[in-house]
Amino acid sequence: MNDQSPQKPNWGLTPEELATHKTIFAPDLLEGQRFLITGGSKGMGKAMAFLCARLGAKVMICGRREELLQETQSQAKELIGADIRYRAMSVRDEDQVDALLDETFEEFDGLDTLVNNAGGQYPQNAIDFTRKGWKSVLDLNLNAPWWLMQGAAQRWRDRGAPGHVVSNVAHVERGMPQAAHTCAARAGVIYLSRTVATEWGPLGIRVNCVAPGAIATEGLSDYPPEATQRFNNVNPMFRMGDSWDVAEGVVYLSAPSGDFITGEVLTIDGGMRMWGTVWPAGVPEKFQTY
Ligand SMILES: CCCCCCCCC/C=C/C(=O)SCCNC(=O)CCNC(=O)[C@H](O)C(C)(C)COP(=O)(O)OP(=O)(O)OC[C@H]1O[C@@H](n2cnc3c(N)ncnc32)[C@H](O)[C@@H]1OP(=O)(O)O
Ligand SMILES: NC(=O)C1=CN([C@@H]2O[C@H](COP(=O)(O)OP(=O)(O)OC[C@H]3O[C@@H](n4cnc5c(N)ncnc54)[C@H](OP(=O)(O)O)[C@@H]3O)[C@@H](O)[C@H]2O)C=CC1
């Protein structure tokens, strides 16, 4: 288990850990499979990229910062001998999304699984949201995954090929105080996924989600230490998960193990959906009841 101290400068699993972490899956499970993973240059997306590549898949990742993508590519080459492809872009830009899909389908002569993983938000009480901030979070966490899943589905339909979409969301059933924008966006993705899982079922396209609880990734270092310290206490297991927990969930849904699973949300949260609230901007006094 990795050190989850908030003082640690780099959260999450190291590249060496991603290269050697034990996995329950057979080494050739994804041989010949093609994955596009958005936000694959750090955190959970990077773990997914390493795991899929280790299991034999061809992998394309994207992110905004080329240096992180390049670093991930060379680490994968050096540590696991994999040739991970990348494109620097923002999923918030519709034209760049189309270009990413075109490049991936061309490069790999098709695609088997799209992983909508890129996302994020900032903590704030909803009453104070600016319209600009609301639109930014909705663009990143609802519109972008939609452009990507619709674009992939159109390409699969036109080629007469099956496909799979898995979107990384969050558990939303009890709301997400101080993150209502992302909660609304993720709820949108879940219900879009459940709807198109039916519409696209006859095309051979499955559509699923994974819903992580608090997962120790580099992304959490964006939050203040008071909040991240509390992230260890937001579920009845009193610890965070790691990026491997989520990567293995994504592979389970994408491999033949998931062949008959669609419209599902796989929650990987240590029980947080039943007990525990994050309060990423700090617990308000009225709620400090125990
Ligand atoms: C929460 C988890 C619970 C989660 C509860 C569950 C536990 C899970 C924890 C989840 C962890 C993670 O997701 S880990 C990943 C964490 N990392 C991230 O989220 C990084 C990605 N996030 C982002 O890029 C930003 O949040 C996002 C707003 C989407 C994009 O930022 P940009 O600066 O590119 O966006 P722009 O389009 O320029 O708009 C910026 C506007 O957004 C608003 N804005 C941006 N940051 C703001 C801030 N800190 N406080 C107030 N307002 C802010 C302002 O109005 C800004 O306008 P101006 O004032 O005019 O600039
Ligand atoms: N960590 C947690 O506890 C939880 C996280 N989540 C969600 O899971 C997903 C992964 O989280 P996590 O691994 O922690 O996040 P990280 O912040 O560690 O990684 C996010 C990845 O997404 C990329 N990214 C961010 N914005 C964009 C963009 N506009 N276009 C393209 N790529 C982008 C980042 O690269 P770059 O910045 O260079 O673009 C990076 O590769 C996110 O959607 C997150 O909100 C959900 C529940 C809990």
UniProtKB/TrEMBL annotation:
Its EC number is 1.3.1.38. It is found in: Peroxisome. Pathway: Lipid metabolism. InterPro entries: NAD(P)-bd_dom_sf, Peroxisomal_t2-enoyl-CoA_red, SDR_fam. One of its GO terms (molecular function) is trans-2-enoyl-CoA reductase (NADPH) activity. It catalyses: (2E)-hexenoyl-CoA + NADPH + H(+) = hexanoyl-CoA + NADP(+); (2E)-tetradecenoyl-CoA + NADPH + H(+) = tetradecanoyl-CoA + NADP(+); (2E)-decenoyl-CoA + NADPH + H(+) = decanoyl-CoA + NADP(+); (2E)-dodecenoyl-CoA + NADPH + H(+) = dodecanoyl-CoA + NADP(+). Pfam families: adh_short_C2. Its main location: other. Transmembrane segments: none annotated. One of its GO terms (biological process) is fatty acid biosynthetic process. Keywords: Fatty acid biosynthesis, Fatty acid metabolism, Lipid biosynthesis, Lipid metabolism, NADP, Oxidoreductase, Peroxisome, Phosphoprotein. Signal peptide: none annotated. Participates in chain elongation of fatty acids. Catalyzes the reduction of trans-2-enoyl-CoAs of varying chain lengths from 6:1 to 16:1, having maximum activity with 10:1 CoA. Has no 2,4-dienoyl-CoA reductase activity. Belongs to the short-chain dehydrogenases/reductases (SDR) family. Interacts with PEX5, probably required to target it into peroxisomes. PANTHER family: PEROXISOMAL TRANS-2-ENOYL-COA REDUCTASE. This is Peroxisomal trans-2-enoyl-CoA reductase.
